[in-house]
Amino acid sequence: MDWLQTCAVVLDSMVRLSIPLICAAMAGLWSEKAGVVDIGLEGKMLIAAFAAAVAAFATGSAWLGLGAGILASVLLALLHGFAAITWRGNQIVSGVAINMLAAGLTVVLGNAWYGQGGRTPPLEGAARFGELSLPFASWAREHVPALGLLYDEVISGHAAPAYLAFFAVPATALLLKRTRFGLRIRAVGENPAAVDTAGISVAGLRYAAVAICGLLCGIGGTYLAVAQSAGFLPQMTAGRGFIALAAVIFANWRPWPALGACLLFGLLDAVAIRLQGVSLPGIGLVPVEAIQALPYLMTIVLLAGFIGRAIPPKASGIPYVKER
Amino acid sequence: MSAAPVELPRWADNAVVPLVSVTAALLVAGLVVIGIGENPLEATALLLRGALGSAEGIGFTLYYTTNFVFAGLAVAVAFHAGLFNIGGEGQATVAGICAALACAALSAMPGFLSIAGFLAAPLAILAAAAGGAAYAFIPGWLQAKRGSHVVITTIMLNFVAATLIVYLLREVIGKVGSMQPETPDFPAQAVLTPMHQLLAPLGIKLPSTPLNSAFLLALMALVAVWLLIWRTRLGYAIRTVGANPRAAAYAGISPAAVTMIAMAISGALAGGLAVNEALGVQHRLVLDFTAGYGFVGIAVALMGRGHPVGVGLAALLFGVLYQGGAELSFDKPTITRDMVVVIGGVLILFAGALDGLFRRMVALALGRGGAG
Predict the structure, then answer these.
(1) Which of B311, B313, B318 is nearest to B344 (CA)?
(2) How close A185 comes to chain B (CA, Å)?
(3) pTM for the predicted model, two decimal places
(4) Within the 163-182 window of chain A, which residues sit less than 8 Å (CB to CB) from chain B?
(5) Tens of pLDDT along A54-81?
(6) Cα–Cα distance between A180 and A200 in angstroms, integer?
(7) How remote is the C-alpha of A21 from its chain's centroid?
(8) Is 0.85 exceeded by the ipTM?
C-alpha cells in the first residue's frame, strides 16, 4: 500500500499545482476564442493574488479577498480590452505591458503598505481558504480500498476556489459549445465581419470575453495567495500564466484537452518537486530542471508542427476594423 | 468609438507622440507616488540628483543605459522585419552561458592567454554574440520554416533558458564549493576594462563605477544598426519584409531568409547585455543577471520608434530612472526601484498598445482632428 500512498500524495499535489493553470487556461481560452490574444494572463493572476491577499488581510475574510482579486484582475482585463478592442492596439504589446505593470505595481504597493519587501502579512484563520472535506471522504478512506484513499487525498480536501476552477471547465465547454452566446464568441474569433453583418456588436462580445478572462484569472490568482500560500509573495505566479498559455495551445484551443494539458503540466511539476535531490537507480540524480522545462519544450515542438498541428482561431490577434 | 488611422506630420509622429506618451507615463508614476503618500516632486528631485548629480551617479546611469541600448536594439531590429522578439531575456542568458564557456576554455589554455591575451576579450564577446544569435535563430527558423509564431516560441524559450542556466550553474560550470550559483572568475584578460581605468591615461579622473568599455560597444551598436537598417541592401530587405512580406517576395527578397537573419542579429544584440553584465561588471556568470532588462528593452524600442537615435535616448531615460530609482529607494524606503518596472509597463501600454489614442490626442491638439 506504500506505493499507493505515494501515488495519492503525488496526484494530490498535481491537483493543487494545476488549479491556477486551469483557471488561467480557461481564461486564455475565452479571450483567444473571441479573437483577443492574451499573453497577460500572468500579470492578471499576479495582481489578483496581491489584491486578494491585501483584502483578505484587511477584512479577515477569504471570500472578500476573492472578490477583490477578481475585481483587480477584471480591471486589468478591461484595460487590455480598451487597448486591444477600442484602440486596436497591438495585443501582444498590451499583454507585455500588463505583465510588467502587475509585476511592478504589486511590489511597489506591497512594500509601501507593509514594508516587507513586497510581501503581504501572513493570513490566518478565516482570512485563508481552508480545506473542504467532501462528503464521505473519511468514511471512504476507512471502508473503500484504494479508491477511498484516492478520493480522500486527491479529490477531497481542496480549498473552495479549487472547486470553482474545476467547475470552470465544464462551464466553459458548455457555454462555448452549446449556447448562443458561446457560438457568437467563437464566431467573433473566426470571422468578426460576419458577426458584424448579423448586427451583433463585435466590440461588445470581445469585451465580454475579456471580462470573463479577467474573472477566471482572478480566481486563479486568489487561489495562489489565499489558499495555496498564506499571503502574497513578489512574482509568486512564477510563469504559471505562460504555462497556461502553453496548455491552451497544446489543447488546440479546446476546454477539455486544456484541462488535460494543465493536469499533465501540474503532474510534471509535482514529480519535479518530488524528485528534487532523489537519486533514481540507473539514472542517478534527476535533473529537475529538465522536467520543469518540458511544458515549454513540448509546446515549441507542437507549434512547430512536428506532432499534430496547433490552429488558433482565425481572427485572433487581429483588431476588427468596421469600415473597409 | 474606435479610431481611424490618424495622419500626422513626421516631426509630430517621431517626436511629439513619444514625448506625450512618456510624459503621461511619468504622470501615472507620479500618481502612484502620491498614492503611497510621498511627494512626487521631491521624489523626482531626489531621482534626478541620484542619477545625474555626481560623476559617480552618471557612471552608474550610463552603465544601466548600456544594458537598455542592447536590449532596445534587439527588439528594434526584429521590429523592422515585422517580428516581435520578446526573447531578449533568454537570448541574453544563453549569450552569458556561451561567454562563460568561452572563458572556461580560455582559462584552460594559460599558454594561449600569455601569448595572445589581447584576443581573449574579443573572443568572449564573439562567443556571447554567437550564443545570443543562435538562440534567437531557433524561433526565427521555426517561424520561417514551420510557421510557429515567434512571440510564443520566444516566451517559451525564455523559460527554457532560465531553467538551463540554473542546471548548468549548479551541475556543470558552477564554481566548486560555492553555495552561490555562479561560475569561477573569468580570466583577467577576458574581461572588459572599467571606464575609469580606460580614461585614466588620458588624464581624465573618474570615480570607480561599473561603467566599462561595453558602453562604447553599445554606442557602436547604435551606429551599426542605423547603417544596417537604412544604408545596406540587407536593411532594405529587412524593412521591406517588415512592411509587406508578399511584396518583398515579389521583389525577389526571401521573407524566410530575412526572418531568420533578422532574428539572429536581434539575438546577437541581446547578447550585449551579457557582455556588459558578465564580462564587464561581474567578471563571472551569476544567476538572473538579465534582471528583466530584456523586457524593459521592449519599452525602449517602442518609445524610440525603432530608430537608433530614439533607442539611445529612451535607453538613457531608463538608465536615469534605474540609477535614480536606486538612490531614491535609499532615501525613501517606501518607493522601491520596482517603480521603474511600473513606468516601463505603463510606457509600453501608452507608446505601444495605446499608440492610436495618443496619436489621436496629438492630432486633436494640432487641429487635425478632422482627418480621422
Answers:
(1) B318
(2) 20
(3) 0.92
(4) none
(5) 999 999 999 999 999 999 999 999 999 9
(6) 12
(7) 4
(8) yes
